[in-house]
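SAMPLE LOG
Freezer: B-3
Tube label: C17
Construct: single chain, 267 aa
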Amino acid sequence: MTEPRVLTEIDGPIAYVWLNRPDKLNGVDLELITELIAAAEALRGNRDIRAVVLQGKGRSFCAGLDFAAAFKDKRRVARFFFAGPRTVNQFQKVTQIWRTLPVPVIAVVQGHCYGAGLQLAAGADFRFTTPDATWSILEAKWGLVPDMAGTVPFGELLPADVAMRLSMTGESFTGERAAELGLATEVSDEPLKAALALVDQIIERSPDSVAATKQLIYGNRHRGLRGAYRLERKLQAAMFKSKNTTIARKAGTAKETPVFGPRTFGS
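STRUCTURE (predicted):
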């Protein structure tokens, strides 16, 4: 039996998702893309989940696209690439989908974070990395442009000249440098521990306001002012109606620790 390319474990309010090709440094093939999208879609409907932690099994987060494995079936590659009537193709969806989940997604990076791996990390909401992890927008090495929906977060996280330099050269840089540039959220010798410390803070807040905040921040990235203010009003009105908002308000007034119910906001 073929080993699953993606493993998911739910521990209380946290879903742990692992890329599971450690012998290939978690190189991305078409099966991994399919399984990772399926994992994200399955988590979307779980209203008890409060955060997702995305990791790679073994010594690397992800060394990029496994060309030899992925391109064995060129017709299937073509089906993955051409979006048809959809906004995104499958290569883009595997990174973009994490932004659409109504919970924070945290990538924990060690070892290699190359190409498709860097794009996957960029598609998460937060990125925690070891200082010595190796990052690279590797597509330039193969005569390609950055893809897999990575250019959207690159444009948000990096100045244009920095994004172009990294994309045009394919140069490698450390996790520490990734944080200096703004690609990584935090550097730690124990990035999983640091990520879980952030999760502990987030879990103290209403799951509905967390979901709405994520939608608001991403939703207003590319809107004009009227649309941005409209979305802000819409989401705040939804929070006024949320039972978890009432719980947060009462606990705050009483100076007690809130005990929230399941998330009611977000699909």
